[in-house]
Amino acid sequence: MSPYIMLFGWYVIFHGHYSPGGGFQGGTLLAASALLLRVSTGQDFAGKQFRESLARPMAIVGVLIYFGTGLTAALMGGFFLDYESLPIPGMSGHWLRYTGILIIEIGIGFAVMAILVMMYDNLLKGEDY
Amino acid sequence: MEFLSGHYAYWFIFALMIVGLYGMLFKQNMVKKTIGLSIFQASVVLFFVSIASKWNATVPVKSDQFPVENVANYLNPLPHTLMLTAIVVGVATLGVAFTLLITIYNRFGTLDEQEVIEKVQ
Amino acid sequence: MIETHLPVAIVFTYLLFAVIGTAVSFRNKDWAQPLAVLGAGVATLFSIIAFISFLNEGEIVRYWFGNWQPPVGIEFVYDGLSGFISLVINFVAFIVLWHSGANAKAEFKSKRHVYYSVAMLLMLGFNGMVMTGDLFNLYVFLEISSLASYALIAIGNKNAPFAAFRYLIIGTVGGTLYLLGVGFLYTITGTLNMIDMEAMLPMLMDNNVAIAALVLILGGIGVKAALFPLHGWLPDAYTNASSTSSALIAPIGTKVAAYVLFRVVLYVYGADTFESMIPIDYIIGLLASVGIIYGSVMAIGQKELKKMLAYSSVSQIGYIIMGLSLMNPFGFAGALLHVLNHAFMKACLFLVSGNLRLKLGHTRVFDFDSSVAKKQPWTMFGFTVAAISMVGLPPLAGFFSKWYLAIGTVQNSNWLFLAVILVSSLLNAVYFFRILEKVYTNKDNPADLDLDAVEQDEVGFNGKAPVMILAIGLLVIGLTNAAIVGFLFNIFPG
């Protein structure tokens, strides 16, 4: 069941333009697929699908993708998050904006999934009181 | 009567808000307070979505059946996008609230507000 | 060219340092604090550069995100008000984070790195709130800073998570009420941009929806600003948080909420529209006055320094909101000057309480004795300067802000508010001078205390220098206040 949810999650992210969906929803669905495995089979087996230690770097990478795209646009002479100024060869105009939003949605997807999985893992580990 | 029936969506949202506030104020259990908070936020989200609707309009996804030039064919997408962000904010708040509740439970052994207040004194 | 990017650079420096801080400090926890101080320092530098360029050129910088023009897109607006507030909060954050090293090691050993990342996100939220020119964007940044502050408050003593939970419930209700008010405004104006809305609202003066929206927004932001009946979260939250969290949130958090009140009342609604709707300004002034007296009276009755400072904060924010409600230039200038002064004073006081807690292990007022003055002379010097300024004696900064507020009340012939200001200054004197008396005068039998044997047990350089900088800053502000007030008079519209 879990691979299908994951595939659907990626589908939702990529089609955020034309149908209901986008970064947040897709990220949540991806997280649901990882958490489903954790809840049903326990931490050791689920760790094979998505290691615990992978979650935190993934969240950081996700935020950096978002921020980096915006910063690149700003450094290239436009405003922050102005996708028209992204230095991707072979595209221009509204195709560039489309690609820019796609990159950002992927970044959001990574970040949301990593954070939701991280919250679940942290709750399981417990805290020192 | 027109006042009631014409604005029935707003009355419903108002009722939801009252339910949420009731939960937050009058329930002792802290988890129930958090659920009341969530209901309250959901009512505001519904308010924004309800003001985005128009007569005979369709979802704001570009379609060839409805010409784009006539804006009245499409719902107002702006409140929907705002509410996307508001829902995410609500989820994050719920996450922080539940983390706090787990910490409180582990330290005080109870989730009832009166008992925690007594233990704090 | 770079100046146009500065408003955004200030805000996103914190985001960058939050991410980098998280990444780096999971390898080596000792890097967390220097990175945080560096982040706050860079942001302060940007604020100073932007402020100086604003003073020189005098033009308001409007920064459009993604190159979408204002009615469609989100923009950041850097004008006199936001520049001034951002300079104040960034500088205070830099000083507080610099000081926090020793306290952080003592109070939460294993979670330091997380603490600093969350502190960066908190400043991100506050700076975003100050810079933005879009009402919904303000809600987003408001919630970012609120969530970060709930987390920061929860890392405290044993009771802290409960205080943080209560703050969460009340604070989120406040944010949601603000959101509902923004929704109302959107239904009648069709825009969320502050500058556009300012153009449209005078035409809608008697519309019930606009009045309802104003009440909702004021109520919602009033929760965050600790306006009188909505202040209930503040004493517990500030007392139970760690010293550094209190020092970070107390001088900055409620002030940014007061800034939002300024922005909404003056810039979105406009002073004339606001006055002619319903007599809200007088009601808010009354609530603020009650808050001032209530805060001062409750502070006198407290046995513990941090709780006393928390109630004192309730009273001071009352001054600022009363200044707002006066609706004349002296009131506004006094209120904003008090924002600057109170940020410095409260930060200094909370840092001093952190020092005392570090070395003495407690901050119970009635257990202080003259040995404290011998053991920590620098710290108590900072406390004395800040306390005298809070009471309002010249030439320190506190006197001038109360002076301008008093002139504002006289201009309105509002004798009740004037009496409130004077009486509360006396009440402030009671609880501050009580501590000074306990620490500096030597009323006990000298033999019992054995003063000569007590050596100096002062905190290290990182603990002393920030307190000194803030204390000297108060003196500097007091002496140069003519220039500051001259600037403040010019930034208000009409």
Offer a concise description of the structure:
The complex is a heterotrimer of chains A (129), B (121) and C (494). By secondary structure, chain A is mainly α.
Topology:
The complex is a heterotrimer of chains A (about 130), B (about 120) and C (about 500).
Chain A: H1 2-14, H2 23-41, H3 43-49, H4 55-75, H5 94-125
Helix pairs in contact in A: 1-2, 2-3, 2-5, 4-5
Chain B: H1 2-6, H2 8-26, H3 30-51, H4 77-108, H5 113-120
Chain C: H1 2-25, H2 32-57, E1 61-64, E2 75-78, H3 80-107, H4 112-131, H5 135-154, H6 160-189, H7 194-200, H8 208-225, H9 233-240, H10 243-269, H11 271-277, H12 280-300, H13 305-325, H14 329-360, H15 370-375, H16 377-391, H17 397-411, H18 415-440, H19 446-449, H20 461-479, H21 481-490
Antiparallel strand pairs in C: 1-2
Care to describe what's here?
The complex is a heterotrimer of chains A (129), B (121) and C (494). With 129 residues, chain A is mainly alpha-helical. Chain A has one domain. Chain A contains 5 helices and no strands. Chain B has a single domain (2-120), classed as Helix Hairpins (Orthogonal Bundle). Helix content of chain B is 71%, strand content 0%. Chain B has helices spanning 2-6, 8-26, 30-51, 77-108, 113-120. In chain B, helix 2 runs antiparallel to helix 3 and helix 3 (30-51) packs antiparallel against helix 4 (77-108). Helices cover 78% and strands 2% of the residues of chain C. Chain C is built from 21 helices and 2 strands. In chain C, helix 7 (194-200) packs parallel to helix 10 (243-269), helix 10 (243-269) crosses helix 11 and helix 14 packs antiparallel against helix 17. The chains are: A mainly alpha (129), B mainly alpha (121), C mainly alpha (494). The interface between B and C is medium-sized, with 28 and 24 residues.
